[in-house]
Design goal:
The structure is a single chain. Helices cover 67% and strands 6% of the residues. β3 and β4 form a beta hairpin. The chain has a 3-stranded mixed sheet with strand order 3-4-5. It contains 25 helices and 5 strands.
């Protein structure tokens, strides 16, 4: 009995009645924040609204119970909306479950192998660029939904079609009414938090959607609303044919994209949430496994992929949550609502949900950080911009890969500093050339330019003892340059009847000296 109590207290640590009251209150706040976001993300992803609620429920009842981060809340995220929509359009809703299942299993494996902490090593500029690109594509798509219009499939077409959208909206009374509702929703989201007393009672997303619903329902405006099919009907278990579809290169790429983006966003969110409270900090490998377990269950139920969501998590902390009980209870409230009141969703206007997502997309773009980043770390700003633009112009997965590749190149460039120092011991003696720093192929053109500027009629003694690292390309290039330079200097000295300071014998030993220096540079790098 004591062991059972201990296990229960470890999984559900309610320290006191005061703690439970705080968690109970926080869970209601998180539920009210999560409800419109779960529905909005589902509709924007091209799936039934209940599918988003299923992911929210799993995020509370499964991930919420597991160790990792005690106050972080998981559910469907706006950051994956664009990628999920593309997956649903390409492979179908049933295969989406298989993709999410594979992503969850991969997250479990990465967590078991202790890869959780390594996700924190992903360049912040790549993550910000990824979120900015998602935000731009999300806004571009939801602008159409604001006016009850169908959006084009790809990012470029969405942006290019905006002028035509404006013309269509101006000529349609129904579209103008929907646009007014959507824009009104955005305005409520922006200004409601400034009303502190009201914000403490009703969260901005719920207030915005509720007001929009009342405005459209009372006069019976002809605006599109959420379609409801029931919670059980929304569950679509993936079959073997859906799992078999994962063998295609495109599906595997989508699995990797889900895994990378969901894991990175969850663990970055965990780091942000840790800064908001003084309680136990996140155990990253366990949190990655908790996210994997949640996504595995979501995949089995044919639901949307989940991530930890900073909006819900920060609301949880701000509401005074003390333990993980608050996030578990928020899942209970979502389950009760979805099971008992599904018809309530059918009165919500789609334009209002589009307004919620336009606002969420704008918050994904680090507008305030771009200026300081450009002034202080210009290369990081370039990585951010290239990642975002690549996602908009190409697709999510390739955009992230481009950003990661550019970040690696930037880092390699910044760490490849090479210095060339020349000492002239006097006429008739070879120049003493010392190369120090990190010699990589990225700096090789500049390094050779410096060496080739030395007098052609003077031999050289090349000293590479100051190198901390030298790659193969630099080793071969320096060996070839020293040999050719000393032979040319020897010939020039013979033609003028003067010693060049270094002859054929020295040149013949160049390759051996380079090899020894390369080994010393590698050993030195290992010591550092």
């Amino acid at each position: 009995m004591d062991l059972a109590k201990k296990k229960l207290s470890d999984s559900f640590p309610m320290k006191s009645r005061g703690s439970f009251r705080a968690d109970f209150t926080a869970s209601l706040v998180v539920f009210l924040v999560a409800l419109p976001l779960c529905v909005g993300v589902a509709v924007a992803s091209g799936v039934p609204a209940e599918v988003g609620l299923i992911t929210g429920i799993v995020g509370g009842l499964v991930t919420g119970l597991l160790p990792g981060s005690s106050l972080q809340v998981s559910g469907p995220a706006a950051g994956l909306t664009v990628l999920v929509y593309e997956a649903v359009q390409t492979y179908g809703l049933a295969t989406l479950g298989a993709i999410v299942l594979a992503s969850g299993l991969l997250q479990l494996l990465l967590g078991a192998l202790k890869f959780g902490r390594w996700f924190r090593a992903i360049s912040v500029s790549v993550v910000q660029g990824m979120l900015a690109g998602i935000g731009l594509v999300l806004i571009a798509g939801q602008v159409y939904s604001l006016a009850d219009q169908k959006a084009p499939n790809d990012g470029i077409s969405k942006i290019a079609g905006i002028p035509g959208l404006v013309v269509d909206v101006i000529g349609s009374t129904e579209a103008l009414m929907a646009l007014a509702v959507g824009v009104g929703t955005i305005l409520v989201l922006v200004f409601w938090p400034k009303w502190k007393a009201a914000q403490k009672i009703v969260p901005a997303p719920l207030a915005a959607v509720a007001l929009a619903t009342v405005v459209t329902a009372v006069p019976g405006l002809p605006i599109a609303r959420v379609e409801v099919q029931g919670l059980l009907e929304a569950v679509q278990l993936p079959g073997m044919e859906n799992i078999g579809a994962l063998v295609s290169v495109g599906a595997l790429g989508t699995v990797l994209a889900f895994t990378l983006i969901a894991s990175a966003e969850s663990l970055f969110s965990a780091a942000a949430v840790d800064r908001l409270h003084d309680g136990p900090k996140t155990e990253y490998d366990k949190e990655l496994m908790a996210q994997g377990a949640g996504n595995t269950v979501c995949g089995l139920l044919g639901a949307l992929p989940m991530t930890a969501v900073i909006v819900r998590s920060s609301a949880n902390v701000s509401a005074g949550a003390k333990t993980k009980a608050s996030r578990v209870l928020h899942g209970v409230w979502l389950l009760i609502f979805a099971a008992a009141l599904p018809a309530a969703l059918s009165v919500i206007p789609l334009a209002a949900l589009a307004g919620v997502l336009v606002h969420a997309g704008w918050k994904l773009i680090p507008v305030k950080d771009i200026g300081p980043l450009w002034r202080e770390h210009r290369a990081e700003a370039v990585v951010l911009a290239v990642t975002a633009v690549s996602i908009v112009l190409i697709d999510m997965f390739q955009g992230v890969l481009i950003g990661l590749g550019l970040a690696v190149i930037k880092t390699a460039w910044e760490t490849s500093h090479v210095h060339v120092d020349v000492d002239d011991p006097g006429a008739g003696r070879p120049l003493k050339v010392r190369v120090s720093g990190n010699a990589t192929f990225l700096r090789l053109p500049k390094l050779l330019d410096n060496l080739e500027s030395l007098p052609a009629d003077r031999g050289v003694e090349l000293n590479l003892g100051g190198l901390r690292h030298m790659d193969h390309a630099c080793g071969m290039a320096l060996s070839t340059w020293e040999e050719q330079h000393n032979r040319a200097a020897a010939r020039a000295g013979a033609a003028t009847g003067q010693g060049a300071g270094s002859g054929e014998g020295d040149a013949d030993g160049a390759a051996d000296s380079i090899a020894v220096a390369s080994e010393e540079a590698t050993t030195g790098a290992a010591r550092h």
